[in-house]
Structure formats: C-alpha cells, structure tokens
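Question thread 4412

I'm putting together a teaching handout and wanted feedback from people who do this every day. The idea is simple: show students a protein as raw sequence, then show them the structure tokens that encode its fold, then repeat with a second protein so they can compare. Below is the first pair exactly as I plan to print it.
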Amino acid sequence: MSSHHTDESLPLLSAPADGVPDIVDTPDALAAAVRDLAAGTGAVAVDAERASGIRYGGRAFLIQLRRAGAGTILIDPEALPDLSTVDDALRGAEWVLHASTQDLPCLAERGMRPDALFDTELAARMLDFERFGLAAVVGETLVVRLAKEHSNVDWSRRPLPPDWLTYAALDVELLIEVSDILQAQLQETGKAEFAQQEFDHLLDFTPNVYAEPWRRVQGLGSVKSRRGLARVRSLWTARDRVAAAQDLAPSQILRDRHLIALVGIDARTPDDLRRVPGVPGMDRSARLRWHKALSDADALPEAELPDRRSADAEAPAEVDRNRVKARLDLMKPAVQEVARDLQMPHEVVLTPRHVKTLAGRRTIGDEQAVAAFLAERGARPWQIEATAGVLAAAAAEADRD
C-alpha cells in the first residue's frame, strides 16, 4: 500500500481537539482519572514516553491514555509508580498501541497489562504500508500530519515543557480512529484473523533476557581472543554498575566504541589511560575504574575466560555449511513468494531466524515435522499454515541435489 501524497502537503494537527490536560501526579488526581477511565467506553489508546539513551533501563516517564467519555489523561509514573488501579479500570478493554513491544515492558513495570490489544504499527506492516512510523500511518489513514519534533527528548525532565505535553497528547489523540480504519482494511484484505493471532501473541510479550548481555556490545566482532572477550565483559560490568547507580544510560558513561578501544590498550597503571585516542572523559575516577576492570580480566585463569561462542547463540547447525546454504537458497525465496502472494513483508510472514535454524537441522522432514518445529518456536498458526508446506518442499528439493 503506497502513499499518494507527501507529508508536507497534509494539514498539520498541532493541538489536541479538547486541549492538553493537566498532568496527573498526585494520588487524588489519579483516583479521579481512574474513575473517568472506568466510566469511559470502548477501546483505550495507550502510549508511553521513555528516556532511552539518557536514563538507565527503559522505564516510562509519561503515560498517555485516551478513551471515549474520559478524554486524554497524562500520568507521571515517576510520581505514581503503582498504576494497578488504572489497570483495574481498563479490565476487558482493548488497548490500542503503536509498536506495542516498545511500550508493553515499561507499562508492565507499573502494573499495567492489557487483556486485548491492537497494534497499529503491526497492522500497517501486515497491510504492506511502505512506512509504518506513527506519523506515516496517521498520514496514510487520516490524511493529516502529526508533528514529530519531540520524539527523542529527555522525558525524565521535570517539569515537562508545555509543547512536549502537547506532542504527547497528540500521540493518543487519533489512535482509535486509526485502528478502526486499519481493522476495516484488514477485514477487506482477508488478514483480520492473521492480525488477531499476532495481537493475541503480543499479550505475552516480554523482552529478550540475555544470559551474556555484554556480548551485545557493538564492535565485539573485532575482539578475537578469549582474553579480549574477558576484558569486554569486565568493562561492560563495571560500566553497567556505574550506570545503574547514577541512573544514566550506559552509553552516557562509556560508548561501546570507546569500550572496544580500551580493550586493545596495554595499560600498566591507571595513568596509562590518561590519553586513549578517541576516548573522552578520562578523569581520575574513570581511569581507576577502567584500569581495575582490565586488570581483573587479565588476572583471570584460562579456565574462567568466556567461550568464543555465546550462551545466547542458536545451537550450531547439525549439517555442514554447504548443505545449510543449499537449503536456504531455496527456502528463503519460497517464503518470499508466500509473502508476495499475501502482500506482506517476508519477516512478518515468518521470522527469518526460524528459517535459518530449520535449515541447519540434520533432517527437516515433511510438512508436519516443519509445522511442529515452527510451533515449538512460537510461530502463529497462520504463519505455520502459510509456510510449513513450502519450506518442507524447498528443503526436500535442496536435499535431492
């Protein structure tokens, strides 16, 4: 589905229809908001603003809700950390969110979990929209333009400036109308049942928890030795401890590229870290901290060094690389063909990682065996029905050659 207009040609929505409400930041104001939400009707639009890249973790610093009969409500979750009463008021209501996997974890931290949801971003992807950011989807469905100039600001700031609150209120102003249009389009295109399976699946969403989160450092591939990996792990752990204590994003303490630069330094004393090329902020406490982390890693016996292979990695392939490649050369296009028929992005039709893992198995088997493999990995029934047969056929063809 493609757009027939440029963003600039659309009328700009610059203020909520019924104004920007006062922020809810006291128990009394929360009790009133809860009464309004409980008395409201229909679906509720929900959004959260975080301070990713600024504060430690991914907690919400503002939560926006809008429901017919209740209007728009802006809650400060720093002042009101327990929002289980809001959750109770919304029992049974469908929540409409955009890119729900970004917001569900920080809402759950505050005691808010939906019973049913509609994700406008995922719906747009399933409808094959060219762009699926909130502003693009609003433009495509309602033919108005949302201003997006405050999306990366520091939402932990207090008090929040009035223009930021306007922006935040606008994020939920139109979500219900957008979801109604998208739902109608899903029905028209025969995708409503597929989407419902996706939305139901998202109710159990939790972010990945990594056994070795330090291996997520960008640039890790350049570190070849196990001793070098131990240095990365030690620096990462020291950085994370400081970041948590200061409530700052780890990148505010030491960027990944600077961490990797330190791994290659031969520093006998903390002062040898005084001028590491390209690494800023090397005051005395930082030099002591990073030098200790490096020294601790260097002192580890061989047996305690990390493996080259991550504990979080997929199990290694059971067949040789050429066999995996031959299978993937036929299996990937088979999924892409299904995606073209369904008019959806191929990664929505099936997670590429599932295809790669399947290709590495000793025996792939028939359609039933592939269906069981995909179900075990959490693929939805519609995905299994669409892809199990073509994947089994493609693998069989590759194995015949």
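The second pair follows. I'd like the answer to focus on this one:
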Amino acid sequence: MTRLIVAAGGGGDAVAAAMLDAALYGDEDPAVVLTYAWDRLLIDPVPGPRGPANFTGLRPLTPAVQTVPGNAEPIAPAGSTLPRLARELPQTFALIDPHHGAEGITRQLEELIAHLAPESIDLLDVGGDILAQGDEPTLRSPLADALTLAACSQVLAPVRLLVAGPGLDGELPAEQLRSCLGPVALTLTPDHVELISSVLEWHPSEATAMLAATARGVRGLCEVRDAGLPVPLTDEGPTIHEVDLDEALSRNRLAQALVMTTSLDEAEQHSREICGYSEIDYERNKASWLGTLPQQNLDPKTTLDQVAQFEAEARSRGVTHTTFRRITEAIGLSGARREPLRTLLIESRPEQYAAPLWRIA
C-alpha cells in the first residue's frame, strides 16, 4: 500500500523523509515524497523554488502533479538535487509547485490522495520552524513550511505532522519548541541513517546532516549557515515528535494568511507583511552579491591555512562541529568550490570527519 510523505520545506526535508519512510514503515513499498525543488544557492543559483517548467524529463502522475525521475534535468541556469535523489533513493519524488499558492498545493494533494489512496499521510519538518508564529527574531525561512502547512490543513484526509530534530535548523531553539511538541514517534539510530548515508556525502542540507549526526551519537555545538548560527547537538537531536496539525496552524500566522493564496507572489507579500521579509528577497540579494565574486582557484595550502584560521576562531566561540557549507562561505569560496573543499579536508584530515559534519580540531 502507498504512503505519502510531504517534505515541508524541500531540500534536506526530502532526504529526511526517505529516512523516516524506511525507519517507520520498512523497506517494502517506498513512499511517494511530495517535495519542493528549492535548494540553497550553493546548488541552484536561481532564487526561489523551481516549478515543472524548470525541468526536462518529468513524468505526470496526476494532472497537477509530476514526478522527478532520475533522468530528469533542471534547465540551466537552474539547479536541483531531486534527480540525483531519485537515482539514489527508492522513494518516488513528486514536485510541489508553489507558483499557484497554497490553493495550488492543496489541489496537488487532493489529486494525489484520490490517485494513490495512501494508507498514511505525514507532513515532515526538520527543525520545527513550521511551528513558528512569524515574529520570532531568529526565524529565517518560514515560507515553504507555511505553504505546505496551509495546504495540508485544507485536505479532508487525516495528515500527521511530524517534527524531526527540534531546533536543528538553527531557527527556533529547541527549548522554545518543547511546549508545542507531542509524543516521540521515533528516535533515530545509526541504523536508520544507513539508507541515506551515501546521499549525505554530497547533499548540502545542514539540518538533515545534523539530524543524521546526532542519530550517530555526535554531540556538541555546530555552527551553520552563512551567518554562523550556533546549533546545540543534544540527545533531542535524533527525536521525531508528533504535533497536532490544527494547533500548529493556530500558531502559525503566516500559514493562516496563506490558505487562500493563488500565487507565489501573493504568498511572498503575506510573508513580508507578517514576518517583515520574504526569504526569496534574501536569496535575490545574495545571488546578486555572489555574482560579483571572482571565481577562485582552490590552492590547497592557502585553503588549509584559511580553514585553520576559521577553526581557531570557531573554537573561541565554543564551536565543536560545523558543516562544509559553513566553511565554504566562511572562507569566501563560491558554492561551486564546496565539493573540492570537502574532498581536500577529508583527505588531509580524515580524523576530523564526523560524517556528515566536520569536527573542529
């Protein structure tokens, strides 16, 4: 029987959804994962989420829903991790199209439910910013989660909301989320991570990387993102909690406002009014700034010296771990240099590789 998992924020949530699917339901009959094609600028230099028109090779599943097979390709200059995920993982990845607002996503969900008749529907968010009210000063990327929450609240079928790794996205601290969380549905273990271990070697998601690392027993303080946000790696990290979906909607003012939206532009405007910003505006500004950076060669000695300086400064902040994305941006390299940097570090200092994180020496 088919299961449907909605990856609330796209990106690493889709990877976590594959891990959740195997951990909760087993290896037989992998789920359909409905997810955004919305990757960080390290992968996709075009701001905002991608829609069906940005791919070749998609396959129709329903009139409003297309799947992303392994041979699909994003149309340049756009980029996407979804085709490679489809090649490496057993789940079927279907594309959320947010360009018709929450009403369009609701229509996609309704068609999928009618077509698949799934035995279960889970809405998964890594970190817990789907529980934001909208005015939290640490909130950075509420729009995708709020759109999926708004859409899931409108379908007639029961949807279970799951929050994995409270606080791991670096937006809402775990202590701020505890009163909203329901019972623990699952605590991830190293065995659960095995399905996605090869994906974690290349996928840039920081929150899912920390989710996997905590499941493997890593503890400490991890610095993430371009802003250097500190994220505690604790025993709460590998837990997955059930949350009442209606209560989440009653907290999330942005999701409430998005329920009747019919375009992404309209959704963005609500985000500006309620949260004070749109994360796509941030991506537009950052993409423009990144476009001015010179393409740098990766000189090993210079790069290792820069990393050593970064590590010394990070240690002074009490940091024990970081991500390769954080190091890439902290030493001023472009996203295209992330993989060569990762390879250089692991080959030169393998003892510091706390897969998929980097341990500060």
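Top answer:
Good format. For the second protein you could add a caption like this: The first strand starts at residue 3 and ends at 7. The chain has a mean pLDDT of 96.
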